[in-house]
Amino acid sequence: MHVLRQKSGEGFDELCHHDIATSHPEFIAMHSHDYPIFEHDPSREAMLEPTKIWKPRDIPERVVLCFFQEALAKVGKDARSGGHLRSEVGRFPIHIIDVKGEPVAVAHPGVGAPYAAAVLEEMIAFGGRKFIAVGSAGGLVREMTAGHVVIPTHAIRDEGTSYHYLPAAREVPQQSAPIEAIKATLAAHDVPYALGKTWTTDGIYRETPARIARRREEGCLTVEMEAAAFFAVAEFRGVACGQMLYVGDDLSGEAWDMRDFIHGQASLRERLFWLAADAVLRL
Q1: Contact, 176 vs 245, CB < 8 A?
Q2: What tens digit of pLDDT does each residue of 149-167 get?
C-alpha cells in the first residue's frame, strides 16, 4: 500500500487508501514537501522501534558516550561488562565503571550522526536516561587553540539525522541541565572553556571555505558530525543528553591544520573522559 500525494495549488493534497487512512491515521499528519528531508513525520513509533527490538539490560541510567578509543581501552581493563553494541562494523563493548561510588555505563557512539543516533537510541532502550558525550571537533576561529574545551549551546543542523526526530529548523539547542552539569564540573576542576554554537555536518570532505565562513558568521566555534543528532534524539525521547568537545584540528586559516589532535592530545582526552564521567553524575 502507498500513501499518495498530489500537488494542489501551493500545498499538497494527500490521497490515501481508505484502509491506510483508518488504520494508520498518523500517516495523514506527516508533512509534505518537495524535498524529502523536510517531510517531518511526528509519529511516535517506527517500524524498527528500539524498545520492541532491544530488551532492557542491567546498566546504569547514567552513561558516558566517549569517542576516544585509547581512553576506552584503558577504562575497559578494570570495568564490568554491560554487554555489547553490534553492527556491520563489529562489536563494541559497553563498560560499567564506578565513579565516586556510583555506577556509570561507558560506550563508544560510533562516528557520524546516523551511527551516533542509533547508539543513543539503543542505550536508551537498554535503560540509559542521562548522557554526556565527549569528543573532538575542528576549530573554526583562531582563538580555539588545540585542546580548548567547548560546550555547545546549539548545533547547526547541517546533517540529515536530526530531521527524522524534529521538525526542520536551522539549529537545535543543547538542554540546559547538561550544560549546567558540564559547566559545574569544569569550574570545579579549574578547566577553562568556551560556550558557543557548533556546526554538525555529514560532509567531512565538503567543509568548504564558503560554508566555514558562513558558519563562523552564525557564531559557530567548532565543526563536528554528531551533536545535532544527540540533541534531537534526546529531545524526542525525553532523556537528558549533553556534549562537551575539545578543539583538535584547525579550519580557521587558509589551509587545514591537523595539529596532531589525536596522538598529541592523549592525556587531555583521558582527562576529558573523566570530566564527562563527573558531569554525568551531576545530572
Answers
A1: no
A2: 999 999 999 999 999 999 9
**Strands 149-158 and 240-250, how do they pair?**
antiparallel
Structure-block grid coordinates of residue 10: 501551493
Residue with cell 559545574: 184
58-281 adopts what CATH topology? Rossmann fold (3.40.50)
Q: Give 95's strand partners.
A: 81, 106
Q: Which amino acid is at 73?
A: A
- For the packed helices 266-281 and 69-76, what is the interaxial angle rounded to 10 degrees? 70
The DSSP result for 164-205, as a single string, is: GTS---SEEEPPHHHHHHHHHHHHHTT--EEEEEEEEES-GG
**What grid cell was written down for 117?**
543516533
Say what the pTM is.
Answer: 0.88
pLDDT tens for 18-71 read 344 444 554 557 878 889 989 999 999 999 999 999 999 999 999 999 999 999
The H or E element that residue 193 is part of is: strand 193-201
Domain ranges within the chain, ordered by starting residue: 1-36, 58-281
